[in-house]
Amino acid sequence: MSYMHEKVAYLQGLAEGMEIGSDSKEGKLLLQIIEVLEDFADEVDSVYDELDDLNDAVVELDDYLETIDEDLADLEDDVYELDDDDFEDDEDEDFEEVECPDCGESFFVDGSLIDKGEDVECPNCGVIIEFTDDCECCGEEGCDCCEE
User: Fold this and answer.
1) What gap in Å lies between CA 109 and CA 119, rounded to an integer?
2) What is the DSSP code (8-state) at residue 118?
3) 93, 112 in Cβ contact below 8 A?
4) Which of 28, 73, 76, 131 has the most CB within a 10 Å radius?
5) What pLDDT score was predicted for residue 141?
6) DSSP strand pairing (128-129 vs 106-110)
7) Rounded distance between C-alpha atoms, residue 1 and residue 52, angstroms
8) What's the rounded Cα separation, in Å, for the pair 72 and 75?
């Protein structure tokens, strides 16, 4: 960053033009401040050089990772031989919304579990919910009295 070096060089020239010497206390102080500023400018240049090197390394790593990602995608395609059709939603899936009789929380259950009469645990409170084919009004299995 030559801009800082230019500013420090200007201060050095200004101090010489004003004939500031190290023979007075104030002169010693000003010359030391200018010297410290020059050291700072050198250090800032060094930091900027390191940042440039790091930036180059990051760009190189980014390119390398992009290449690896492309190779991995090709490998996955070859190994798994998946089509876009494999990721489509299965429209045959049957989920039903169920309300927990204990806490009143609603959640979805696979319809096949309900059809099989399997028990399901409420994810909110942990109560076991039993699914049966028994009619709610008469208690008989398979009746038609509630299907109106």
Assistant:
1) 11
2) -
3) no
4) 131
5) 61
6) unpaired
7) 12
8) 5
Give the tokens for residue 119: 């028990």
Which tokens belong to 107? 């959640």
What is the DSSP track for 65-86? HHHHHHHHHHHHHHHH---GGG
Which amino acid is present at 108?
F
pLDDT digits (tens, 9 = 90+) for 103-123: 999 999 888 888 888 888 999
pLDDT of residue 146: 59
Instruction: Please give the Cα distance from 95 to 63 (Å, whole number).
Output: 45
- Which of helix, strand or coil describes residue 108? strand
Phi and psi (nearest 5°) for 92? Answer: -80, -10
- Look at residue 121 and give its three-state secondary structure: strand
Q: Which two tokens stand for residue 126?
A: 């942990």
Q: Which amino acid is residue 71, in one-letter code?
A: D
Whether 141 contacts 134, CB under 8 Å = yes
Tens digits of residue pLDDT in 42-87:
999 999 999 999 999 999 999 999 999 999 998 988 888 766 565 5
Please work out, in degrees rounded to the nearest 5, the angle formed at the alpha carbon of residue 111 by the alpha carbons of 124 and 113. Answer: 75
